[in-house]
């Protein structure tokens, strides 16, 4: 399992497979790197903005403030590459007639969302498998309370295609918070 820094990944190296029908009658296009490996990325330290990790309170999410312009630009390039890939594959992916670029752009939901002061990026934790750490010690989701900064390992798992929308599946694999107001980069080998 190879983890690379998010800003080092070339979005053009992301490959999309032909969509497959899911159990809930939607479609999902799996993503890999050109060499077939999964896309695991280490995000730079980011400020925690909001989160919901209670399945009874709605959809699970962790939002981070996008104050790092390099990361913001990287995520925008991934969005652009995804939209272009869907458009390039439109004839083989969709059974309806020609799909315009405007239709693809309008139906795409970015992980970048509007925040009060800065844009936010939203990742979906896996309620069962997401690992949480405080410094180097394993913890649970409650570790985020009172901690302003975190570093995350995320996976771009695929692209969910619904009847009138599509969105990338950014899955939070692990999150490390620190006691300090800033965090350092970390590797799985550090844990």
Q: Can you put this structure into words, describing what you see?
A:
A hairpin with a 2-residue loop joins strand 10 (131-134) and strand 11. Residues 181-191 have low confidence and may be disordered. Helix content is 16%, strand content 37%. The chain has helices spanning 69-88, 90-93, 101-107, and strands spanning 3-5, 14-16, 20-21, 27-33, 40-42, 46-52, 61-65, 112-113, 120-125, 131-134, 137-139, 149-161, 166-177. A 5-stranded mixed β-barrel has the order 6-7-9-13-12. The longest helix has 20 residues, at 69-88. It is α+β, with helices and mostly antiparallel strands and 191 residues long. It has one domain (3-96, 108-190). It is globular.
Secondary-structure map:
Layout: E1 3-5, E2 14-16, E3 20-21, E4 27-33, E5 40-42, E6 46-52, E7 61-65, H1 69-88, H2 90-93, H3 101-107, E8 112-113, E9 120-125, E10 131-134, E11 137-139, E12 149-161, E13 166-177
Parallel strand pairs: 1-5, 9-13, 10-13
Antiparallel strand pairs: 2-4, 3-4, 4-12, 5-12, 6-7, 6-12, 7-9, 8-9, 10-11, 12-13
